[in-house]
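Technical note accompanying the year-one report. For the benefit of new consortium partners, we illustrate the data format agreed upon in the data management plan: each record pairs a sequence with a structure-token string. No post-processing was applied to the example shown here.
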Amino acid sequence: MQKAVFLDRDGVINVEKDYLYKIVDFEFMDGTFESLKKLQENGFLLFVITNQSGISRGFYTIEDFKRLNSWMLDVLAENRIKISQVEYCPHGPEDECECRKPKTGMIDNILKKHEIDLEKSWLVGDKTSDIVCAKNANIKNTIQVKSGHDFDEEKSSADYICQSIKDIPDIIVS
């Protein structure tokens, strides 16, 4: 069984921009490469789970998402970072799917292919729905970052709150 870190994309790995799908608009969050390398070096598998309702809303296509995702994975690989799997939900909130966070469909798909020790794993997100998803999937540890969507820290159910991805190795690896 492996330990893992499940990462939301927008607001965690990259700067939050509404309905991001163009490579030219993608900006990695400061500290992304260093943080992900440190997690890898400490034996964590890395996964991305991301709601992409812009697809169902018609703002961009699945092909647009896949093009951006492929580019992101290439840049991460150039920096010696391996993302073991990316899962995305193309549905909107009204679609009642099983994959949109806070439901666990994306994590369930990952668990079908990888033997993950959820007790030693983490989920990092910027929204309440990310943290609730982790709890619903029995992921033991959660971090909510302030670098994406605004949230009320006092109402957060996350185990830890920090500024951005730059800070997560200090929490996870310590």
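Partners are asked to follow this layout when depositing records. Residues 3-123+135-149 form a domain with the Rossmann fold fold (CATH 3.40.50.1000).
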